[in-house]
Write a structure and sequence with these properties.
By secondary structure, this protein is an alpha+beta fold. About 45% of the residues lie in helices and about 20% in strands. The strands form 2 sheets. A 3-stranded antiparallel beta sheet has the order 1-4-5. The chain has a 3-stranded mixed beta sheet with strand order 2-6-3, with no helix packed on it. It is elongated, with a radius of gyration of 49 Å.
Length: about 200
């Protein structure tokens, strides 16, 4: 190294050193490649006002949606509870009415027998009493069923015995021994019948 080089100030490297050393911070404009961002750089970056507002709006909307879903679920559960309660209440009412109506069935049977024997003549005191008793049963919702000629239904009829009948193509009620009664969906008593069945 020459004496001239030794005496030169530090950083003075000739004509190119007038502007000083190359500035690395010039970035891509200086012709150098930009370094890729790291995860730490992204996480450590300051959030802008627009981004913060968008996050707040999203969180608020999500909360509203969640509350709306919960409200709809609770409304549906309450509606189902009311429906089940009403159905159960109706069943209990029918059962209570059924117990009261069951006590009337023997009286209704006696009235039917008296009517068949001609004892319920119109205008007689007995006929008036029969009318009142039947009105009470009707008010409770009691319905009678079972008539000759009906198709035999084991869900409604109780067969006392069967009579093979020539020409019969299906089992039908030949005679009603005891009238059947129901109250709504509650079976108070099946109809006891004689069944006509096809003859072999």
């Amino acid at each position: 190294m020459s004496k001239k080089d030794r005496d030169a100030p530090i950083g003075d490297e000739g004509p190119d050193s007038v502007n000083g050393p190359a500035d690395d911070s010039a970035g891509p404009a200086a012709g150098g490649a930009q370094e890729p961002l790291t995860v730490d750089d992204i996480l450590g970056a300051e959030q802008t006002g627009d981004a913060a507002a968008a996050d707040a709006a999203g969180a608020s909307g999500s909360g509203d949606d969640s509350l709306l879903i919960d409200l709809k679920r609770l409304t549906a559960e309450y509606a189902n509870y009311r429906r089940r309660t009403e159905e159960q209440r109706q069943i209990e009412v029918e059962r209570a009415q059924g117990r009261a109506a069951t006590a009337l069935l023997p009286v209704l049977d006696d009235l039917s027998r008296a009517e068949k024997h001609g004892d319920l003549t119109e205008g007689s005191p007995f006929a008036a009493i029969a009318e009142k008793v039947r009105a009470v049963a009707e008010k409770l919702g009691v319905e009678s069923y079972g008539a000759a000629g009906e198709v035999f239904d084991p869900q409604q009829h109780e067969a006392i015995f069967q009579v093979p009948t020539p020409g019969a193509t299906e089992s039908t009620v030949l005679e009603v021994v005891e009238t059947g009664y129901r109250l709504g969906s509650i079976e108070l008593r099946p109809a006891k019948v004689v069944v006509a069945v096809p003859a072999d």
